[in-house]
Every structure is written in C-alpha cells, then in structure tokens.
C-alpha cells in the first residue's frame, strides 16, 4: 500500500494534469481496496521464507501439518534478506530475492504486484492477468498462445530496472507519459530513471532463481518416544533406555510451555549383555587319575599270599666278622 500512495503523490505533483492523476488514483485504489474481513476468493497464495515480515490482510492455515501464512488482497510483504516464495492459489509461483518490499493486490480475477525494491521472478501457468507496478513503469505479462509466462522484474544495487522475458512477452508502459514498448520473448533489457528512451540491452544484469517447493512429509501420529543414552562400546556396561510419554509442541505459541511429565510415567530399562558359555573342543592327553567317590576312603591294594619275602638285610660289618671269628675259636659252652 505504501508503494501505491507514494506513486499517487508523485503523479499528483508531476507534470501531468490532475485528471490523469485522479484516473490512476481511482484505478489503484480500486485494486487495493482491502478490508480486514477478506473473503476466501481474495486469497493470493501461501508465503514461505526465513526472514520475512507480513502486514495487512493475511490468515494462517495448516498445510501438510505445518502452519503457513496465506496472503490476501492488500498484504504488504518485506523480505529482509535471502529469498521468499509465494505459491499462488491459481497455480504458479512468485520468487522474491531480498532485500525487497512489495504489496500484492487481487481484484476482479487479476493479480497486481506493487514493487518498491528488490527483484521478483514470476511464473504463471494459467490465464491469470498479471501486472507489476513500479514507481514509474507498469509491467504487463503477455502470453504467447496458451503457453506459460515467465518474467523477471527488479532493481539492482545502482537503481537500474531489470526486465527479462523468459517465456511470453512483456509490455512496458511509462506511467507519466503513456509511452509503451513490447519486450519479445527471451528479451533482456534494463533502463535508468524510468525512461524508455534509456532502454538498453542487458545480459543477466539481474538474477533471481525460482525457488522449488520442497515436498513436506505427511504428519505422523503421536507415539511413545524413546530416548536412548549414547551407545557404549561393547566392552562397557550398562546401557539404559528411557520410555516416556510424548511431548507437546504448540506451533502458534511464541514461548513453549514447560513440559509437565509425571516422573511415575517414566520407565527406565537397564540393558545387560549375557556372556556366552565356554565350550572346549578337543582331547586331553596324559595318564588318567583315579578319583575316589565322595564319602569313601580309598581302597588299599590286597596283599598277595605268594608274594616273595623280602631278604634279610646283610650284616657284613667288620665288628660282626670279628665276633664270628672269636666264636669259632672258643670251645663250645664257654
């Protein structure tokens, strides 16, 4: 909206008659007539980006389990940095390369973008009339047959305006003088000070790639969560596992509430590793050892009756020899 009011002030204070300024004013206000209670048919599309700020008419919807911001007629969008993407309800896409500031207007089945700063890359598959207003130049996409339209419009760091017709043609009109020119398909031009006389051929002067929408996996039903302590090496024990009720996350809350979990509902599981039984395979070599049964003394080996008697130890000492010799010399009976 700020872009339109600035444009109207420039028109009223310019060199054109007041009647022309009034006509443009009525046309723009009619296209920008946004009310807080926008009907569903005034929805422009779903905006997605990391550093964006949206003011004006908008709504929140849940798409594939995620909360998305839906732009309506009169929404004002500021992309602080990076890129943003608008998925149009009629089909098609608008990529915005920041820093950028623009407004989106939808009335009578046509879509209007009021671009103040930044670059937009638009691709439309269906017959949706699209106009892009800048402070001095009006850009209108023109389809060739029933083909899609792909156009890039924006400003570089020096303030020069970039226009590129990737698919279809583009009609440029100077809002103060009414002068117009057609940019054919594959045409790439830029101009300074909003004057069509200064139109020059460009080769990739501005760039803003289309952002491909990433497929969002379907939401999964809430289930019991398992939190496992970091896995320990096989030779270290023990391993604990905690089973607890599912946590609650509120997407619309600025600050998440503290989780209220009853400690009695938490189950701690201690895992242990069972050592396998040792089994030896092979044979043991050597003499066997007889083992007596418990409670019984070992049986003594029986003595054989015919076993020979041990011979008497011989007594051949010198003293015994002398004694025997003396006995022989003495007469018997002495």
Please provide the count of β strands.
19
By secondary-structure content and strand pairing, the structural class works out as mainly beta
Radius of gyration: 51 Å
CATH topology term of the domain at 2-201 = Jelly Rolls
How many individual helices?
3
Which descriptors apply to this entry?
Jelly Rolls, rod-shaped, 3-stranded antiparallel sheet, mainly beta, 334 residues
Can you describe this structure?
The protein is 11% helix and 36% strand. The protein is mainly beta and 334 residues long. The chain has a domain at 2-201: Jelly Rolls (Sandwich). A hairpin with a 5-residue loop joins strand 13 (169-174) and strand 14.
Helix-strand layout with pairing:
Blueprint: H1 2-12, H2 18-31, E1 43-49, E2 52-55, E3 58-63, E4 66-72, E5 75-79, E6 83-88, E7 93-107, E8 110-124, E9 130-133, E10 137-142, E11 149-155, E12 161-167, E13 169-174, E14 180-183, E15 188-191, E16 200-201, E17 225-228, E18 239-244, E19 267-271, H3 318-329
Outline:
The protein has helices spanning 2-12, 18-31, 318-329; strands spanning 43-49, 52-55, 58-63, 66-72, 75-79, 83-88, 93-107, 110-124, 130-133, 137-142, 149-155, 161-167, 169-174, 180-183, 188-191, 200-201, 225-228, 239-244, 267-271.
């Amino acid at each position: 909206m700020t872009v339109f009011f600035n444009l109207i002030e420039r028109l009223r204070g310019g060199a054109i008659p007041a009647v022309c300024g009034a006509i443009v004013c009525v046309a723009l206000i009619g296209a920008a007539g946004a009310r807080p209670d926008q009907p569903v048919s005034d929805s422009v599309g779903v905006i997605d980006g990391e550093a964006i700020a949206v003011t004006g008419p908008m709504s929140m919807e849940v798409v594939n389990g995620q909360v998305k911001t839906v732009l309506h007629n009169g929404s004002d969008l500021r992309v602080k940095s990076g890129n943003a993407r608008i998925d149009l309800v009629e089909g098609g896409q608008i990529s915005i390369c920041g820093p950028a500031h623009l407004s989106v207007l939808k009335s009578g089945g046509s879509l209007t973008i009021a671009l103040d700063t930044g670059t937009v890359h638009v691709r439309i598959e269906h017959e949706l009339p699209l106009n892009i207003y800048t402070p001095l130049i009006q850009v209108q996409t023109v389809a060739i047959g029933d083909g899609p339209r792909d156009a890039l419009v924006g400003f570089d760091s020096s303030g020069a305006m970039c226009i590129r017709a990737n698919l279809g043609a583009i009609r440029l009109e100077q809002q103060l003088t009414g002068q117009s020119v057609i940019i054919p398909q594959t045409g790439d031009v830029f101009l300074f000070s909003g004057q069509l006389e200064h139109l020059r051929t460009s080769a990739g002067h501005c760039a803003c790639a289309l952002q491909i929408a990433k497929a969002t996996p379907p939401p999964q039903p809430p289930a019991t969560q398992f939190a496992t302590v970091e896995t320990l090496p096989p030779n270290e024990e023990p391993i604990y596992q905690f089973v607890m009720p599912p946590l609650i996350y509120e997407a619309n809350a600025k600050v998440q509430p503290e989780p209220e979990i009853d400690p009695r509902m938490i189950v701690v599981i201690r895992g242990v590793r069972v050592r396998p039984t040792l089994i030896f395979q092979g044979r043991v070599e050597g003499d066997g050892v007889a083992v007596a049964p418990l409670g019984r003394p070992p049986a003594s080996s029986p003595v054989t009756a015919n076993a020979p008697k041990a011979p008497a130890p011989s007594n051949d000492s010198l003293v015994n020899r002398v004694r025997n010799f003396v006995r022989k010399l003495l007469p018997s009976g002495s």
